Every structure is written in structure tokens, then in C-alpha cells.
Amino acid sequence: MTTVLPPASQPVTTDHPVTTDQPVDPAALVARRRPGYALEGPFYTSREFFDLDIDAIFAKHWIFVATEPEIPEPGDFITVELGRYSVILIRDDDGGVQALHNVCRHRGSRVLLDAKGSVGNLVCSYHQWTYAADGRLLHAGDQPPTFDKGCFGLKKVAARTLGGLIFICLSPAPPPDFDDVAERVAPYLAPHRLAETKVAAQVDLVEEGNWKLVMENNRECYHCEAGHPELTCTFFPTYGYALEEIPPRLMPAHARYLAAEAHLERACTERGMPFAPIEELQGRSTAFRVQREALDGAGESYTRDGRAASRKLLADFDTPRLGRLSLHFQPNSWFHFLADHVVTFTALPLAPDRTLVRTTWHVHRDAVEGVDYDPDILTDVWRMTNEQDGAFVGRTQAGVSSPAFEPGPYSTNEYQVDALVSWYIERLEEHLAP
Ligand code: 3BY
Ligand code: FES
Ligand code: FE
To answer: Which residue stretches belong to region Disordered (predicted)?
Structure first.
């Protein structure tokens, strides 16, 4: 390819001049957001927006952080870092899930230091104040007789489970619309019985980009055809296209999609599994999308040929060919429930330009590694896909950090990116309102 450069005497011009660094005014940037266009650079690069995102988005909404099989037994815990917050998720003695601030009630030390593990009680790493899994203070050494243990339990964080998924909300007044969402989504998830699976693999990938770039990338498949050779063995690259906009070259794939969808709808209806998609991606606090969709190839799973990656199907399904149940939650999670496994994804902000993407694969509790499934085959497609997405995110972070970056328009099949960003802007407006 030949690149034609303008003659040296002729300056390169754009519609808008290249900007230099200005102080960041989040309210002004939110107010002038242009729908249908990418956000301006400081949304992705500045400390101001990072802190605002933690306060207005991550500390105020229901956030998917883990699955029940990640903490199967009493005492099993994980810790989740969200900006200045650190939260312990622990299975209590009654089999319930507890979420607690990882902040000791003595002088404030982190209680648990590990990312995951198993404990009898929660013993603070500093002066050994000891708490039960439900947060009650059990022991504090050398206290006067007036000391009332009942006043110094670990602070609780709201936690809800939905079909084996664990959501937390750091706000003392969590959005009440989770109840309605849970009621409507539960029937789609129930047949897969995620809570009864086991974790077969988990990969933490740190992407070099803002959490919104990670999520915007996830909400479109404009890049899939060129960017994800392994995924598009089974994931139809027509995802997100309106019928009249499908390019001619994708028509053969679209014809296969229609046939596979018809088969899938029959298979679900026969088994009493809900099939109609629901899409409520903005205009509410707990915004989501659920859709059962056919897969290409054998139509069973995310493998190169589309055949199941685990021979032991979930919930004793009588067919592996159930496509994928796709579930999206604003702001930071997405899921694929298949006949043979469930894969969950959560994007957790680490810094303005760094995000942890945690991917967890679940198989039937009785599936035997090396016999029923090979972890390399199970995780192959999404490990590759995540790495490819991570590279897209890193390049975009580099681009939006340039003073020359000017937000460009979304294509028609990026409508879910626009919906995500519109949801985000609605939330910031609400937070910033006087
Ligand atoms: O995870 C999803 O929902 C898909 C995968 C690829 C792009 N995204 C729309
Ligand atoms: Fe936890 Fe002292 S800070 S026991
Ligand atoms: Fe992608």
C-alpha cells in the first residue's frame, strides 16, 4: 500500500485544531457529550473521571463481582478491589454469601490480604481482632470491661445472588430495580444451574486501557470479523447488524444463522426455556440485556468446530445444542451460558488506563478434568479473544490519550456502545445534579 503524504509546504488540517492539555471539568464534559459519538479523551485518561466513575458508577450500582462456585464452602472468600474500596465476599456457615468491607473496625487495617483463600474466622492481620463470616466481632484482645463487641462488627456491603452470579452494591441505598431485573432474568439462567457448577479455570488479564474502553469494545462486534478468527468460528459476525445493513459478504453466514436460530427456538420451546430477548440498556439503574442466540458450526459451544468442550453437560441437559445465552449488565459485566459451560466476565477498574478483566469458566461439578474436558480446549477461544480485545483496548487508550484525538461517530452496529455510554452519562448527570 502506498501512502500519499501532503507536500511539506501544505499544513495538515482537521476540522478541529489539535488541543493542548486543559484542566479537566467533568460536569462540562458530561454536559457537552455528543450522542452517537465516542467520548472525549479525558473521560478515559484523567484521574478526575476515574474517581468520579468509582463514586458515581461503581459505588452506586449493582456490580457483578464473582460467582457462587468461586466460594463453594463455608469460609471460602475472595477480596475485590474497587478504587478506594476493598470488599470481602465470603461463604458463611449457613451457606449464604456475605459481603463485608475489608476495613478493620479497630484502626482500619485491611483485614484479609489475599485475593482468595479459605478461613475459619476473619482475623485482622494487624492486632488480630477476629470476626465471624457474617462480620460479627468475636474477639479483641485486652479490652476494658466496658468494651461492647456488638458495636464493632465489620461493615456490611449489600449483596445479591442471581442464578449463581454474585452482585454487590456499595451504596447504603442500592437501586431497588434489581428485584425486577432478577425476577425477569432468573428464568433464563435457571436451566443452567450455575450455582451447582465448579470453576474449571480463571484468567485475570490486565488490559492497558480505561474500563469504559474495555466495555465499549465488548458491546460491539464491528471488530469481530477482522479481529477474532477463533471466536468467529462459532460466533456469527452478523451480531449487532440490522437486517437491512448486513453486508453482502456476510449473507451466507446470515442464512446459516437463520436456520440455526429456528432450530434453537424449537429446542428451547420444547424444553420450556424462555427464548424472547429482553433489551433494557439505558433509562434505568440496573440495565441489562438477555438473548439466547445460535452459534455457528456444530452450534454447541465456543470451540473451533463448535462441539461441546465438556462432555458432561450442565444440569443434565439432554442436548448440547442450545447455543449461547448472552447476558449483559451495565456497567461492567457480560456472560455466556451454554449447554456445557458458563463463562463470566467482569471488568474492574484499576487506574485511569488499566483494567482487570477476570474471566471464569464453569463446568458441571462432576465433570472430570482430562476425562470430560480439557481446560486448554475449554478456555482456548476466549483466552485468544480476550487477548485480541486487550490489544484493541491498549491501542485505543494510546490514541485517546493524544491531544489530537477527536471523538468519531459510531456505526449503526455499535448501537449497544452508544447505549452503554448513554447509560453512563445518565448516571453521571444524576450524580452531579445539584
Ligand atoms: O460478549 C459478547 O457479548 C460479544 C462477544 C463479542 C462481542 N460482543 C458483542
Ligand atoms: Fe485490625 Fe488493629 S487494625 S486489629
Ligand atoms: Fe472483541
So the answer is: 1-22
